[in-house]
Each structure stands twice: as C-alpha cells, then as structure tokens.
Amino acid sequence: MFEAVAFYLFAFLTIAMFYITVTTAQALYALTALAAGMIFISAFFFILGADFLGAVQIIVYTGAVMALYAFGMMFFDTTRDVKEKNGNKFIVVGLATLAAVMVVAIFVAPIVSTNMQAFYPMVEGVGNTQMVGVVLFTKYLIPFEVAAVMLLVAMVAGIVLAGKKMDLSLTQMNAEQIKEIEDKDKKVLS
Amino acid sequence: MEIGLNHYLILSTILFAIGLVGIMRRKNLLLLFFATEILLNAVNIGFAAISHYYGDLTGQMFAFFVIAIAASELAVGLGLLIVWYKRHGTIDLDTMTSMRG
Question: Rg of the Cα trace of chain B?
C-alpha cells in the first residue's frame, strides 16, 4: 500500500520535473528542475532496496554533477531565453516514444525468452551496501579500475580544457594587463 | 495495488521518451546535456528495477558504471563547451557549421 503510494507520488514528481527541464525556456529553471528530479529518482532506488545506489545518486548527481553544471553556467549567458527548434511536434514525440519502447524491449527480451538466472543473487540478511561491496570488488574489479582510470582521464581533460590561464588572476591585474591578454587571445583564436 | 516490474519499466520508458524529446527539441547545447542526463537516469531506473525483481545485483553494478560514465562525460563535455563559448560567444547548435557538410 505505502509502496504504491510512494511509487505513484514520486513517478508523478519525477515526470513533472523532467518535463519542466525539457520544455522551459529558462536555463536556470531547467537546472533546478533537473536537480529535483535527480533526488526524486533516488527515492525509487530506496523503494527498490538499492540503498547504496540511492546514496550514490544523491551524492554524485545532485552533489557533483549539478554543482558542476551550476559552475559551468557561470561561463555562459543564461539570462537570455533559449530558442527552440520548432519542427513537427508529432514526429518528434512519436520518434521519441518509439525509441524508448525499443530500449525497454531490448531490456525485456532476455527476461521473456529464457528463464533468467541470477548471476550474483542477493543473500538474505546481508545489507545491500555489503553485497555491493563484495560483488564490486570481486566480480567487477577490472571494470571498477577501468572506470577509475576513465574518471582520471576525464578530470585531466576537464582541467586542461577549462583551466587555461587559471594561473593569472583577473582581480590582481590592472586594466592594461587584462586588455593586453585579451588582444593576444583574439590574434590566436581568429 | 501491487507495484510490479512493469510499473517501473513503463516509468523508465516515459522518462526516456521525455529525454529524447528534449534532445530533438533543444538547440542550446547546455540544455542538450541536461536531456542526456535524463536518458541515463531513465535507464538506471530500469536497471535497478530488474535487479530488484530478479534478486540479482548485476543491474545495480551496471547502474554504478552508468553513473561513472555520466560524470566523466559531463567533465569533458563541459570543458569543451566552455572552450567553444570563449571562442565563439554562443553555444547554439546551429552556429556549429564550420565543416559545411
């Protein structure tokens, strides 16, 4: 009973938040609606008994990803209204729904066709976090390490791309020095 | 009423469709990134639901790796976006026509 109430409540909230994210013309509204939707999605993970995944969802998505977007938006002009592509709405919605149904069919096909056997069954009386740790550090150790290297590469790439001239401080330079640097940039970039 | 696997899969489908509509409609690259995050989250719900209803932890493992990939994709993508904005002053998709394809 409570599970059903929680499911429908959070399903409605998540769909509403993501609908706002894809339709609003204000980038800031889209950002805040997306952050709220991420937190509501973690509620589904808690309902499904995936406690660790829910905690990771809150920490990584709303803590790290949304903060990074918020800082990234400081570089862009977000006060302007966003222009939209106004194509045929029926084609857009139809294609999107078709593709989504196909993705679910891909998920469901192995379940329908064969009797699915659990590779790493959940053990009664063992907490979710403990089980995740055991499986992650025995069966999925190599993918885990590869993911760690990938995150390191992404971090280095992010610093290299976004962190140019971070050794210079605009607040400690006078106007002529800043102008000089900007002129040099224009020559290089144009 | 009992909530089954189908409920979660239908919810996942709806969220995935919303994300795809966002990808097809948006011209601003930053909001396009938001739509891709929605897609990844929709798939994560599907993974977690199948993991729960079949008593198998593999789905949750895949969800963890999807989250890691989303984080690294965002770091690189946002860096590229900032570089593009510094050079051209706009992140509209229609202005990215330097290849004249």
Answer: 17
